[in-house]
Write a structure and sequence with these properties.
Layout lengths: L4 H4 L14 H14 L7 H5 L5 H12 L10 H14 L3 H7 L5 H18 L14 H32 L3 H6 L7 H8 L11 E2 L3 E2 L6 E6 L7 E5 H5 L4 E3 L4 E3 L15
Antiparallel strand pairs: 1-3, 2-3, 3-4, 5-6
The chain binds a DNA duplex (21 and 21 nucleotides) through α1, α4 and α7.
Subcellular location: Nucleus
Pfam family, one: Myb_DNA-binding
Main location: nucleus
Amino acid sequence: MGRCLRCCGDESSGGVKKGPWTPEEDQKLLHHIHKHGHRNWRLLPKLAGLNRCGKSCRLRWINYLRPGIKREKFSQEEEQTILHLHSILGNKWSTIASYLPWRTDNDIKNFWNTRLKKKLIQMGIDPVTHQPVIIDHYSMVEHALRLQQELEAQLANLRYLQIQYLSTISSYDDNLNGSIITNMEPFGLLNSISTISNENHNPVIHFPQLDSNNNHNYASFSDGIIGESSHFFDLSQEREGGTTINNDNSSWIIPPTSPSIAPDDDVN
DNA sequence: AAGGGTCCCAACCGCGTGAGG
DNA sequence: TCCTCACGCGGTTGGGACCCT
């Protein structure tokens, strides 16, 4: 970094002191400002007997010596105010500071850069736009894969419970064709599976119905994970004693036991 | 105890702007 | 209209304090 030539001159002209201010320098500056004010920052250091540039004096006064500056930690209310103002004004630190006159723009800027910005990022909020961060393609794929795994785990449980349910109803075909289901408890259990992997996933089980084209009975499950995607299972296959359940695209091998519910559990 | 990393804040720097000649 | 100067602002840095291994 070079010296600010415009106000401080260069090294050959003797230069001025840089770095932290000493208590003696603070006293000199305070004494001078109390006595003469600070009408001309460029002349002030000479008049005050300070080997500093005017800019440095001004900054020391504004950010540290000026009366009424609050130096304690930022309160929750101040934090909220800064967040709100920043969402409207952006990095207009002096404007934001005008709403908190006991804080300097430098303090607010430091507080933002060291605390609030990181806090927002951790919360998944873009500190510039104050909007939730849009995840990139890679993250999106990872997210989708994870959801798919969770979904498949749920479906495994659903399949097992389906079998349990089917074994509890005696006149299966007749009742389902008319959509008359007397024992709803298994469906309640199916709905409760949402807690298996994620409480936000909320499968909704629709009534089994007759497919008029091929005479198969279907139950559909809207999983509530990605939009309203549904999974259709051919119940007839199971009723006929087969080992597979077909959904709209593929066959599923029925597991010998449920991943989460012991075979001996009474699902009724 | 020591050293490396991180956090935090005071201070610096360069640029934009407006006033005045 | 142009130039110079002083001021104010926002970005950045330096270094002490603190934390972790």
